[in-house]
Task: structure prediction
Amino acid sequence: MRTIFVRCCHNEPGGIRLRNAQGCRPCRHMEVDRVEIPSNITRILDMLESAGFEAYIVGGCVRDSLMGIQPHDYDITTSALPEETERVFSGMKLIETGLKHGTVTVLSDGEPVEITTYRVDGEYHDSRRPDSVTFTRSLREDIARRDFTMNGIAYSPKRGLFDEFGGAEDIRRGVIRCIGEPERRFHEDALRILRGMRFSASLGFRVEEGTAAAMLDSRGLLRNISAERVFTELSGLLTGRKSGGNIRRVLTQFRDILAEVVPEFRAGFDFEQHSRFHCLDVYQHLLASAEAAARIAPGELPLALAMLFHDIGKPERFALDESGEGHFYGHAQVSADIADSVLRRLRTSTALREQVCEIVRYHDIPLPENDRQFRRMLSKHGEELSRDIAMAHIADDMAKKPECLSRCEDWRRLISRIPEMAQESCLSVKSLAVDGGALSGIVPPSPLMGEVLKFLLDGVVDGKFPNEREFLLQEAAKYIANRQKT
Result:
């Protein structure tokens, strides 16, 4: 964590510097050195201040700055009313789509920057957005309506750090805590429940006891949240900076919340596998596998999702043999079908859904024993999916008993060979030395031509045929002649 130095306005002039933004308990208002703000954001703050208004950056950008993380975007809050903000920036291009909630978007250096008036929210009847908002000149009132203390910090180069609710201290301690009453915060916006889980996994923070209890008690409100927003939070939970060490912890603590949005996970809760390869129940194995995927392939959402679903169909396919060993024949296809259904319901893109389901469907195919089988794998699945399948095997074995880890190295070696093998080998019909035009003198365009091309490709992939034009034409002629005899 980058060290952030702070000075409180209660200190003696030039006063004591405190490490890691601990702050002044009486006023929670600090001056901060070395919070870097892009020039276009600084210019907006300066213009508002010069016009006589307060202006701060607020929320995630301040949180990330205090943690030494480069913010991706900056939100600005101000005492200026929307029409006053528009007058200040009348010489710049404005987007007014958020005026109802006090937001004016300014295009600064070609980038949209949201500037929102301090506000107090009215009643919430849909557990997502307030029915109305009231503008205020009080920064404290604005901050008081926000979700978590770590997101309730504002910073102004002129006025310093405003931290009325102790967010900087919670960041230092690694704690997620609601501002005010947790139940009220979640009834206002149920998406905050999933945001709390995402932050806990991606930042490695623990959720304060009262906040955690309210998240679990309020989980039924998630039925009011759109599928797209649910999926966005789940994706962030799986691909965050520290998710590789926290997915299992978070989704164990809040498993009933996950099951609220994806009920299919319930069947795996406490479902013992009775397997010599496994030391975890089905649900815990899914979490451990997804966490392993996040460690070995940080930020790769398709792999992390695939591992979260790869054995979800096991309870449906469970059978116990006479020796007491558990078996799950056909579970990969069942798991792929469940993943397909869930991802359709969560309205993911078709490309992502299909990629995840293919990994799940083939996650348990055996390791190729020789180059012929390796070429077969590449020919059937292609380079990208073959790599994903190999990565899935590694993540899967990392979540099993320790003796299974030895197989990971075999799959790593296979991954390292994929580019070379793919370059050297003929793996698709397009790479054959003959095409439909070359075969047209032997067989007219028809399903039979496709059958012949597949026969030739299989022969080349298996190493039976050289990928040479004249040889393949001869083999094609023999194949057609044999077909005509039968």
Confidence is low (pLDDT under 50) at residues 1-31.
